[in-house]
């Protein structure tokens, strides 16, 4: 493996690498700091404004029970911005050869850092992995169980020691935390659930509490889970209009290939355009460490989702969590990590983010070239433009919308089931009543329920 120092000294543009899942790189000096506050999520005109505005940045009728304690009263650097920090199993667990399960000193440093962020005026959410790995260690297993039921059982065992550790560490720092916010995709499958989660989290932040989130591994079934916390953290960051999402892992940053297996892998400091990013993440989606889930692939997917929600994402080493301060506070030393800048084309509006981040498509609708052009111009999808339908779904399901070349161009909530769409595909809306025998909406997917999906978000 390439030594760390030699990897860091490389700053040249690293060109294109074709292998694995991804796509072109902008590798350059990370001193080019991401700039600009996350603008308000704004409204796409289709939702109540209360679902779109960030209650922490606007005026609120709520009393701030515990306003941020500012370390230096002249410099409230955070200004109430939200920072989501996701810590991976590889950071939380001790190595094989070490005594004990939890990397306590690392977690203590992490807790110190999060408290320092609060004191600097930021609102902080912690998304933590580790339940499955800790459960396995507790039972003396050398690897994660293959079966979902086995992993669910391990999560049930590990989650409590994980929470106990955080409770104690934050307690020493007099920082209130909200433990056990266990979420799965099924918990945000309805839009009111998504906005309810948002309201609860904002309420906690307003109270000065640090919410601690993990996937509800023990309960969630395969179809109703995020499957990895990188993705869950991107959903949370989008949900809360976060300014930053930090993905803490066991490598210093993202490289053009896995530095463990490819000594020529070069570091990537800044990704300006994730659409043209090209790195090797291991390819099979199973890359990563003994206890981690998904390797770098799930982190890049998370970066796609979060940057599409105007969040700046940083992949960095969880063993040095204090580095987060160097990224977010002014006049700090240069920090090591890979920064993904917010995308130019962003998903605005809570409802559209819910469709893109919270829902798992259960079918696919293929459209002709005319319908593709209409969708790209933000129009609704009508039956006339549909050529094929796949999957077994009901009305209100989320589906992929693919063009004639099979590329996904959007996702949306359908007004009809797959059987109904099968009957009306290619037909003019005027004949829907005659063909179906009842009156329904003229659009198969209304434009307010259609969303551009960051490409490469496989699910
Ligand atoms: N291009 C890459 N750059 C950096 N790390 C990579 C890359 N591709 C694969 N990896 C692997 O991803 C691992 C981190 O993923 P994972 O095990 O899921 O961590 P975590 O538990 O922190 O989420 C690293 O240890 C590294 O071996
Ligand atoms: N929810 C699981 C973590 C899943 C996951 O994404 O793990 P990791 O790749 O280590 O962030 C757990 O608590 O073990």
UniProtKB/TrEMBL annotation:
Composition-biased stretches (Low complexity): 35-61
Protein's UniProt name: PUA domain-containing protein
Keywords: Amino-acid biosynthesis, ATP-binding, Cytoplasm, Kinase, Nucleotide-binding, Proline biosynthesis, Transferase
Keyword NADP among UniProt keywords: no
Organism of origin: Galdieria partita
GO BP term (any one): amino acid biosynthetic process
Gene Ontology terms: cellular component: cytosol
Residue ranges of every copy of the PUA domain listed in the record: 363-445
Hydrolase as UniProt keyword: no
Ranges where the record places region Disordered: 1-20, 28-74
Pfam families to which the protein is assigned, alphabetical: AA_kinase, PUA
Database matches in PANTHER family: GLUTAMATE 5-KINASE (PTHR43654:SF3)
GO molecular function, one term: ATP binding
